[in-house]
Amino acid sequence: MLRAPSPAPLRCLLVDDEPLAHTVLCAYLSRLPNLAVWAGSCYGAVEALTFLHSTPVDVLFLDVDMPELTGLELLRALPQAPAVVLCTAHAAHALDAFDLGVVDYLLKPIRFERFVKTMGRLHAGASAAHHAPTASPAALATTGRPTDSIFLKTDAGTERVRFTDLLFVEGYGNFVKCHLVSGWTLLTAETMKHLESQLPAAQFLRVHKSYLVNLASIERLSGNVLLVGARELPVGSTYRQEVLRRLHLR
User: Fold this and answer.
1) Using CA atoms, how far apart are residues 76 and 84, in angstroms rounded to an integer?
2) Do 54 and 165 fall into the same domain?
3) How do residues 191-244 score in pLDDT, each as one tens digit?
4) 130, 146, 163 - which closes a domain
């Protein structure tokens, strides 16, 4: 039986005004040739905007404190950002970073073992998307919609999101944010209740009034906190027993 080919190494761009940061990350990437390749270097956010307009990349390693335009301002300016990993010496930016849907947050000086963990997570997400099955015509004919995905209305149009690509769903005022394995976030006007009814109950679990989680994406439960991807999510008291049961912890 033929194996499906693995996804190509991820194309990585570093945006940082410090030359040393480019030297360190380039050296790290050279040690992981099967996971990533160096797509380019930019020493400022304005330069990066021009680069990204003409050159596709899979992962953006982004410094925060830069002249002219900060990394967070660059991220807000991108109409559709690739997977983003923030690289900074200041932990204070973490909250803003995750609100913008970054995949990970690396504190300088970046240790190689921590960098390897980040790349492994990024590559696993790309691999899951690459190998995700497509619904058969028979399934579509029977149900009237795909059995492996959901369609979400966003400002950009209607997006198809595969269940395997969806990390978790977050209530966000009158909207819902869908956090994807790729690091992208989709904002939709759907309600949490409606999305919960549309997602397969065997695969997704409500863990809090504001969070609905893909069980396959849970990495750790510590007290009343779940680690999902790079995010720590609270477990509501009314949901805890069901979470323990579904994780086979009781």
Assistant:
1) 12
2) no
3) 888 888 889 888 999 999 999 999 988 989 999 999 998 889 999 999 999 999
4) 130
